[in-house]
Amino acid sequence: MNFKMQDKQNQLIERISDTHLIVGVDIAQQLHVARAVNFRGIVVADPLTFENNEEGFVKLLSWIQNLQKLKNLDSTIVGMEPTGHYWINLSKWLYNQNIEVVTVNPHLVKRNKENRDNTQSKSDKKDALVIADMVKNGYYSFIRPSSESFEKLRVLMSNRDVIVKRLVMSINQ
Q1: How far apart, in whole angstroms, are the C-alpha atoms of residue 132 and residue 124?
Q2: Distance CA 170, CA 159 (A)
Q3: d(CA 86, CA 81)
Q4: Residues ≥6 apart with Cβ < 8 Å to 6
Q5: How many CA atoms lie within 13 Å of 139's alpha carbon, on the beta-carbon side?
Q6: Among 49, 56, 101, which Cα is nearest to 80's?
Q7: Is the pLDDT of residue 14 over 50?
Q8: 32 forms bridges with which residues in the sheet?
Q9: I want to staple 26 with a disulfide (CB 3.0 to 4.6 A). Which of 33, 71, 146, 164 is the partner?
Q10: How far is the C-alpha of 9 from the C-alpha of 136, rounded, in Å?
Q11: Contact between 79 and 23 (Cβ < 8 Å)
């Protein structure tokens, strides 16, 4: 079977229907910003700023549920950049709340900044909107939940890499 990238993107776009609320979240260390659009990319609410803790996550969920009721939407897909490790807690928490979470490529977000307003300006609100637009247009990837032991192994491997680099630096000195 000959599979083309365009076919995959078309499938990702077709998954989003007119009953979807699409939320883009710009991830930061302490304060995240969320923007919501409909399946056509029309902004349906003011931006939401929330903290990177459970209280903030509950605030986001309440905001999403209110928008769903207000706009008569029954499905939500939340997109975010997987930069650093700050996105992991939010994605797991939303996954446990039965909300679909996807990621977008950070390099594509940077390149798509001009699509919305024809400027290269950067702000958290704009980035969240760009992320929502990218999800709407099928430029996203699914998150595969991993076991706790796998995550611990990944942390150990990362720590090992750091230690090996330090060891090599010390030997070279």
Answers
A1: 12
A2: 17
A3: 10
A4: none
A5: 17
A6: 101
A7: yes
A8: 50
A9: 33
A10: 11
A11: yes
User: Cβ neighbours of residue 84 under 8 Å, at least 6 residues apart?
Assistant: 27, 29
pLDDT digits (tens, 9 = 90+) for 53-71: 999 999 999 999 999 999 9
Fold for domain 5-142?
Answer: Nucleotidyltransferase; domain 5 (3.30.420)
* Per-residue pLDDT tens digits for 140-151: 988 877 778 887
Alpha-carbon 60 to chain mean position: 13
State the average pLDDT over residues 87-93.
90
- Cα 19 from chain centroid (whole Å): 20
CA distance 163 to 157: 10
DSSP state of 15: T
pTM of the full structure:
0.79
**Alpha carbon separation from 58 to 64, 91, 96 (Å, rounded):** 10, 13, 12
Dist. CA 169–CA 171, nearest whole Å: 5
Task: State whether residue 48 is helix, strand or coil.
Answer: strand
